[in-house]
Amino acid sequence: MRLSRSVQEVVDNQLCTQCGTCVSVCPVQAIEMRETPAGMLVASVQEEKCDQCGLCRLVCSGADFEMEDLENIDPFKGRVLKAYVGHAGNEAIRASGQSGGVVSALLLFLLENRRIDSALITSMPADGSLRPHPILARTKGEILAAQGSKYCPVAPSTLLGRVENGERIAAVGIPCQMHGIYKLSRHRNPLASGIKYKIGLFCDRTLFYSCIEQMARKAHLKMKDVAGLEYRSKSRNGWPGEVCFHLVSGEKRFFSPSLRSSLKEFFTPLRCRLCFDKLNVFCDLSVGDAWGISESAKGDSVILARNEAGNLLIRDAMAQGFLETKEIDAELVFNAQNIEKRRLDFSSFMKLYGRGGHLLPEYKGLMTEFLKAGNKALDAQNKRRLNYSLDIAGSATKENALARARAWQRKQKRDLFFASLLGKLKGWIRALCAGDDL
Ligand SMILES: Cc1cc2nc3c(=O)[nH]c(=O)nc-3n(C[C@H](O)[C@H](O)[C@H](O)COP(=O)(O)OP(=O)(O)OC[C@H]3O[C@@H](n4cnc5c(N)ncnc54)[C@H](O)[C@@H]3O)c2cc1C
Ligand code: SF4
Ligand code: SF4
Ligand code: SF4
Known about the structure:
single chain; 18% strand; binds flavin-adenine dinucleotide
């Protein structure tokens, strides 16, 4: 058996981030993205087509990522020139944006000023598939129709191979997607040459597609009746938004955000547990929700300008009224996004998963001084979370994935019940020993 030089090893070790870069880079179109039963997208190499050139593995950031550029800079925060809070100048764009509509306003500014020809973004179709797909948007209508966050797998970089010669694009993506683009540039791959702007989104995690079915079940909806999904719709009660299912009948059904948040831990891919980069540190500017900084129901975004190009873009867009922002202290963003918790969790997950002898993503240049040891309680909790990810990802069918997720949920409820009972018992015993009246 010959040793594969493709990304197959990355996929086999569950380290694929689902970015799609390898699909674009393969000279013989031997790679496609496939959906697993639990609902992840992973690269799939057709060995009979592959000629072992090794190009896909060279640009893949799933198993190894060089980050020497950040030498002595905290990778959990990244380089920040300036930080802002604000929103789109146009109220309609703000209203349909996930937070403040900043990303779409910036894209429109770039398109209307002819600084780009298209934007690589992600659109959710209303055809019942509930599978977002990447597009190269060339019109205002396409950019606006793709607003809003899709908290599930998407592989935008599969489209990089379709960018025409000389076409200038702005790429919008979550951190792992930006890592793929960063590696393409680092290795001087021509696919990166058309990317003029990199607009990053903050990212805590994506969720398996099977989470959508579990949400629908909890909401007492049948999948055959569902045409579309907005993970966080602002249309009824404003920011931060509710889960909104669009039904085939045309009706919209709104549910509390807890419908999604209560399921998050069970549907998180392993690779997200092993990801340090919540704030998208390898782009021109990164954008997230203004949690803890603005409470406006219209929605506001926070923006971290990572370099001069990103900062100039914000200033130019403001000068033409596309954006309204004010400068803030970046530390406010780090605190509101709970970056110290991310540091602790990442350090704990890497330690725990590495202990099992598994292949870990290698972040070359990530200095250990930026990691932080947690405590036994955190490790115990994270061990359970790793189990959820591994168990559910390993399901042979979608039904099996859903059944496993429900079993873990039931177990979690039982454990919480007994932990609280134990706490109460201890309290009573202490009180009895002290002779208190119960
Ligand atoms: C998976 C995921 C996790 C996130 N986690 C956090 C978080 O933990 N904390 C936080 O503050 N913010 C998080 N965000 C970012 C936040 O949800 C908003 O996307 C961000 O604030 C920009 O909002 P906006 O109103 O400026 O953008 P909009 O004007 O709504 O535009 C959003 C753009 O993002 C694109 N997009 C949507 N989903 C995806 C996707 N999956 N992959 C690539 N592009 C996509 C859309 O096509 C659109 O162009 C996350 C986003 C995603 C997609
Ligand atoms: S390039 Fe991206 S999609 Fe391809 S194997 Fe690596 S992480 Fe997965
Ligand atoms: S090794 Fe080369 S030919 Fe084989 S899948 Fe990767 S890029 Fe394609
Ligand atoms: S947490 Fe990291 S690996 Fe997971 S989707 Fe977000 S950027 Fe990608």
